[in-house]
Amino acid sequence: xxxxxxxxxxxxxxxxxxxxxxxxxxxxxxxxxxxxxxxxxxxxxxxxxxxxxxxxxxxxxxxxxxxxxxxxxxxxxxxxxxxxxxxxxxxxxxxxxxxxxxxxxxxxxxxxxxxxxxxxxxxxxxxxxxxxxxxxxxxxxxxxxxxxxxxxxxxxxxxxxxxxxxxxxxxxxxxxxxxxxxxxxxxxxxxxxxxxxxxxxxx
Length: 203
Ligand SMILES: Cc1cc2nc3c(=O)[nH]c(=O)nc-3n(C[C@H](O)[C@H](O)[C@H](O)COP(=O)(O)O)c2cc1C
Known about the structure:
Blueprint: H1 3-10, H2 32-42, E1 54-59, H3 62-82, H4 87-103, E2 106-113, H5 122-145, E3 149-153, H6 160-166, E4 173-182
Antiparallel strand pairs: 1-2, 2-4, 3-4
Helix pairs in contact: 2-5, 3-4, 3-6
Bound molecules: flavin mononucleotide.
Flavin mononucleotide (FMN) binds near residues 12, 13 and 188.
């Protein structure tokens, strides 16, 4: 196997990140130039009609994380309460989720510009969603290339308008996913993959 395949097969989701080595507190910071390189590489993803519908929100400050966390948690609480979840369960889940946000050194919210469409049809919208998702994978691989790790988090889908309001984003930037990125502080378990032979039909 050549080094490119090795690299592509190496990426794994990581959810625990190293603290700051100089203080032993907080998170090990990610240099701004590294974040720029990752986002620049992300923009080389393919997209339908080359419309590049992806948009990025960098959330690294405590205030930004607090606003993001508050918007997600209040929606989570409301959703769980309307489903009849017990208060203790809601609180446990809320605290766990808030901790994940505050412990992530960097959060990138991947948005889709809903106006970046060739035509206003269902198919074109699907293409734009697919294009944005491709950028998500490119972002994870670009982070890996910079020695970072992270994971895709789909939670934003449940609170799109709340996030737009809380972070004062343009109305047409729909949050599609967010990525928690940092320096890995865990060894992921062995990857379980189906065999491509079992997933392929030959005609
Ligand atoms: C669309 C999508 C949504 C995901 N949502 C979450 C999520 O909300 N929380 C999470 O911890 N991981 C999430 N993941 C990461 C997957 O759980 C992970 O990629 C999968 O288990 C395979 O593991 P690997 O990434 O280590 O290969 C998501 C991945 C994708 C592609």
